[in-house]
């Protein structure tokens, strides 16, 4: 029996690494790490962990920059637009000593200075700087559209990374990005994601229309679930819902036989090639290991502290305000450094630990114990 288990384990491991190699071959890469070397005042290179910036983009193009057709946009429940916003921004911190990983979320409407642009919502950093760079390159006579796309994408990613580093005080070591279409395709491949709602909810803007209780969602419904805006806590409530969804999605991905089912594997490779971009040095084996930790609840989710979710900028836009020094102090405390004093006007967020015994309550205040496989959320 022991021999049989050993052989089976080795066979699965071999298949897994073969699958991982195929995924790597189909993954688009960016030269962002070379660009990051030029960012002024970057934190130290070695801080005891590997920090991966995970970005969810609402780009209406695929990973090669080709516009999505109208029928695909209808499936995504969105419209065509030239702008690019990064509506999900998470720093995954993996300690080199084998300690517990952390996933730190940054609200999309956090108001911060953006290098090469102005003070604005952090989710606009990528798109705004990309647009300005593309205009400049065209004016300079760069006629090749693909070359303009590549260089303007790098500039946009650099601006986003710099904004994240300046806000958190963390050094970004690696970069991984997925667009709307990829999110849609991946949830279809794994057969949907199990979620649970405390009450029925609807939102005509995102297309969300869900009953109360447990349910399995995929495709357009999954996008609506994580993009819904009219919910308690605003940006913070949506982040908490995204964190729960991500944890459940990883469980589905790793338990659905994706890597051993030829049909699912083909779908996964197709989704990756159309939607995922990572830096050229990111070790996908490391990322896969962390995905297993995420699925098992061995990752600590947290959201940076904010001073208000109902702020307005001078242009009348709704924003999330933060005390940037307080954010740095909170991050330093979370990752085990000696923090600076936090101003008394700011209340740091409480890290939310996911697992079978401790699940996030999305009232914006506390984590509560619950004995269930799928946490119910607002």
Would you mind describing this structure in some detail?
By secondary structure, this protein is α+β, with helices and mostly antiparallel strands. An 8-stranded mixed sheet has the order 1-12-7-2-3-4-13-16, with helices on both faces. Strands 11-8-19 form a 3-stranded mixed sheet. It is 40% helix and 22% strand.
Mean pLDDT over the full residue set: 78
Q: Ends: how far apart?
A: 47 Å
The CATH architecture can be named as 3-Layer(aba) Sandwich
Strand content: 15-25%
Question: How would a crystallographer describe the biggest sheet?
Answer: 8 strands, mixed
The domain tally reads 1
SSE blueprint and pairings:
Elements: H1 2-26, E1 28-30, H2 32-36, E2 49-57, H3 70-75, E3 86-95, E4 101-105, E5 111-113, E6 119-121, H4 125-139, H5 145-168, E7 174-179, H6 180-189, E8 193-197, E9 201-203, E10 208-210, E11 213-217, H7 219-227, H8 234-255, H9 262-275, E12 276-279, H10 284-295, E13 299-303, E14 308-312, E15 318-321, H11 324-334, E16 352-353, E17 358-360, E18 367-369, E19 376-377
Parallel strand pairs: 1-12, 2-7, 4-13, 8-19
Antiparallel strand pairs: 2-3, 3-4, 5-6, 7-12, 8-11, 9-10, 13-16, 14-15, 17-18
Helix pairs in contact: 1-9, 4-5, 6-7, 6-9, 8-10
Descriptors:
single chain; 378 residues; alpha+beta; Aminopeptidase; eight-stranded mixed beta sheet; three-stranded mixed beta sheet; 11 helices; 19 strands; globular
């Amino acid at each position: 029996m022991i021999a049989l288990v050993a052989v089976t384990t080795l066979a699965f491991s071999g298949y897994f690494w073969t699958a991982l190699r195929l995924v790597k071959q189909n993954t688009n890469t960016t030269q962002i790490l070379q660009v990051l070397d030029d960012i002024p005042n970057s934190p130290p290179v070695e801080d005891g962990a590997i920090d991966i910036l995970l970005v969810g983009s609402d780009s209406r193009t695929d990973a090669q920059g080709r516009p999505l057709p109208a029928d695909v946009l209808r499936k995504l429940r969105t419209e065509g637009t030239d702008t690019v916003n990064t509506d999900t921004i998470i720093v995954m911190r993996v300690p080199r000593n084998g300690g517990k990983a952390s996933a730190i979320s940054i609200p999309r409407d956090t108001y911060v200075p953006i290098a090469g642009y102005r003070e604005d919502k952090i989710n606009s950093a990528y798109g705004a700087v990309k647009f300005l760079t593309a205009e400049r390159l065209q004016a300079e006579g760069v006629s090749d559209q693909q070359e303009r796309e590549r260089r303007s994408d790098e500039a946009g990613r650099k601006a986003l990374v710099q904004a994240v580093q300046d806000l958190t005080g963390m050094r970004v070591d690696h970069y991984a990005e997925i667009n709307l279409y990829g999110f849609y395709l991946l949830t279809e491949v794994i057969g949907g994601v199990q979620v649970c709602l405390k009450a029925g909810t609807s939102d005509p803007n995102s297309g969300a229309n869900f009953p109360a209780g447990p349910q399995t969602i995929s495709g357009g419904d999954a996008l609506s679930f994580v993009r819904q805006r009219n919910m308690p806590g605003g940006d913070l409530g949506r982040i908490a819902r995204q964190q729960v969804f991500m944890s459940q999605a990883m469980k589905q991905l790793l338990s659905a036989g994706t890597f051993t089912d030829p049909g699912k594997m083909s779908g996964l490779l197709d989704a990756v090639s159309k939607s995922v971009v990572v830096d050229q040095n990111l070790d996908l084996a490391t990322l896969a290991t962390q995905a297993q930790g995420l699925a098992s609840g061995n990752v600590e989710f947290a959201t940076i502290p904010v001073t208000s979710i109902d702020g307005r900028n001078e242009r009348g836009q709704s924003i999330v305000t933060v005390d940037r020094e307080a954010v740095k102090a909170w991050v330093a405390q979370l990752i085990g450094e000696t923090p600076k004093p936090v101003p008394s006007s700011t209340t740091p967020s409480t890290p939310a630990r996911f697992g079978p015994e401790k699940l996030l309550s999305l009232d914006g205040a506390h984590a509560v114990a619950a004995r269930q496989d799928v946490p119910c959320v607002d």
